[in-house]
Amino acid sequence: MKFLTALSLLFASYGVANAYNNCTHTCRVLVTEDGVEWGAENNDWCIIDQSLCVKEEDKNQCFSFPNYLCCNECNVVLEDEEGKWGYENNRWCGIKDTCTKQAEPEPKPEKKEFCAKHIITSMYTADPAPLIVDDTLYIYTTHDEDVLINNFYTMRDWYVFSTKDMVNWTNHGPILSLDDITWADDRAWAPQTIERNGKYYFYYPAHKIDGGMAVGVAIGDSPVGPFKDIGEPLVYQDDWIDFDPTVFIDDDGQAYLYFGNPQLRYVLLNEDMVSYNEEVGIVDVELTVEGFGEGNNNPTSYDEGPFFYKRNGIYYMLFSGFRKGYESEYIGYATSTSPTGPWKYGGILMEEHEDKTFTNHSSIVEFNGHTYFFFHTGDLPDGGDFHRSVAYIEFEYNEDGSINPITNNLGKC
Ligand code: FUB
């Protein structure tokens, strides 16, 4: 046979079989010659030592240890001339040389603990709303006066605080006061500022003389003012609903102004930012439990303090609300794929402050690679319902853009 002839020639030229190596990874006998079984490896003949071969019926056995199973782990218990041995499930097992240490289970990333901090402790502030200009974060706030009239909200002006590092804060206020607004006489409540074409638009709610609540707007040349009111309310319907404005300009240039307690409403701002699309008018958002969670209000948990923004194509609406069984506000959020809803309830962002203060009011901003949740609490000395203080805490979004509840750990961390 041609093959045997070749083999004989091979043997002839090399003389004896033991000039060949033992096969190390094949047990397939190609030729048996004078009781010697030959296989082939690496383009050369090799001699098969059957004692090293795994029998068909012993497939699970360890190649190097024909009568033993292969270890699952690589923990060497014993080493002798045959090789390395492990001990698993009450029996010895062979450890292949190719055995690589199984990767240690990935340590679970430790849940980062962030610490809440006040932005200012020398005065009472509430209702924070952020604006980033260049390398600076500005936080616009309301101001709870030290001395209360009728033990109720006593709020007559607005402030802005700036920081570049979240440590050092500069107070630029007051930036606007009820005294500067001809049509308003009370309730300098939760504002927000936005920039467009180099101008800064400060949206604020206030009580209209002889009327209800209204949303006004004042214009400034810089984020810290001075701001000049346009001289009349931007939104006024002679009710007590239209306050707590939040403003956002979408990628297509359309600006939205949401507001309202306990009805969430919006208008489409015109390019000039001081008037709105009258044809669309003032739109009531349909408040559903699917959108705003179940609660004490109509029948959802939405109450007030909307904060509207967009991240990675998702629109977010933070809000202050009442959950069933609670008499102070929690912060919840809803998301949508469109700026006007429908909204999908996302859950609790911050639980009620319970006995500390009846309200809360939130906003979120990404600054210098970190994400911050701003809120207010009653945690300062003599703090309470009408003596509140703005604080913030860092947090991280989940992969899908959802946000886990955030704990107010002021003073505990
Ligand atoms: O600060 C006055 C009012 O209390 C705000 O407008 C509401 O959001 C609530 O925080």
From TrEMBL:
Family per record: Belongs to the glycosyl hydrolase 43 family.
Keyword Repeat: yes
GO biological process, one term: carbohydrate metabolic process
Pfam families on file: CBM_10, Glyco_hydro_43
Organism: Anaeromyces robustus
Protein name from the UniProt record: Arabinanase/levansucrase/invertase
GO MF term set: hydrolase activity, hydrolyzing O-glycosyl compounds
UniProt KW Lyase keyword: no
Domain CBM10: 12-49, 61-96
Site (Important for catalytic activity, responsible for pKa modulation of the active site Glu and correct orientation of both the proton donor and substrate): 244
Signal peptide: 1-19
Gene3D superfamilies in the cross-refs: Cellulose docking domain, dockering, Glycosyl hydrolase domain, family 43
InterPro entries reported in the protein's UniProt record: CBM10/Dockerin_dom, Dockerin_dom_fun_sf, Glyco_hydro_43, Glyco_hydro_beta-prop_sf, Glycosyl_Hydrlase_43_Enz
